[in-house]
Amino acid sequence: MSKVKLHDKEFAISITSKEIDAAVAKVAEGINRDFHGERPLLVVILNGAFMFASDLMKKLTVDCEVTFLKLSSYQGTTSTEKIKKLIGLNEDIKGRKVIVVEDIIDTGFTINDTINSINEHEPADIKISTLLFKPQALKKPVDIDYVGFEIPNDFIVGYGLDYDGLGRNLPDIYKIIE
Ligand code: 5GP
Ligand code: MG
Prior knowledge:
alpha/beta; six-stranded mixed β-sheet; 3 helices; 10 strands; globular; binds magnesium ion
C-alpha cells in the first residue's frame, strides 16, 4: 500500500518494513556491543514503542529484562507538551542499568520527563534508544544513545504509532500528506 486514509487524513509511505528492520538491527547491535556481560532493564514507553520494543528484544543477545511505562502527550497531530503519566514504574530499578525504549523523540518533553521519573528510582545508569528522532522539532535537549532514523518534522503513523488510535498495525511508516 503506497497510501492509507485514517480518519480524515491521508498518509503516504515513507519508511518500508525492510528499512525499519535494518534500523532496529542497528540499534540492537549498539546495545549488544555496549551491554556485553551486563543485564540491562528495558523500560518501554507505551503505547507507541510496543512494536519497536518487541522487534528490538528479539535481536538482543545480551541477558535483558523488560518493563513498561505508560505516558501520553499527543492529541491529534500535535504534541501538547503536557505529559500525563498513566502507569508508573513499580519494579525495583535501584542500581540497575536502564535502557529507555521510545518510538519517537519529537519536542523532547516526554523523554526528559521520563528520565526524571526514572531517576527518582536511583538506577545505576540510563541510556536512551529511539526508533525515530525529529531533530528539527527538538525543544528540550537530550542525549540520545541509539537512534534508528533521523526524520524531517512531519507527522507520521504506522509500526506502533497512531493518529487518534488508528494506524498502529501498519507494518510500514507513513507520513501525512498536507
Ligand atoms: P515529544 O514529547 O518528544 O514531543 O513527543 C514524544 C511522543 O509524542 C512520542 O513518544 C509519540 O508518542 C508522540 N509523537 C511525536 N511525534 C509523533 C508523530 O509524528 N506521530 C505520532 N503518531 N506520534 C508522535
Ligand atoms: Mg512514545
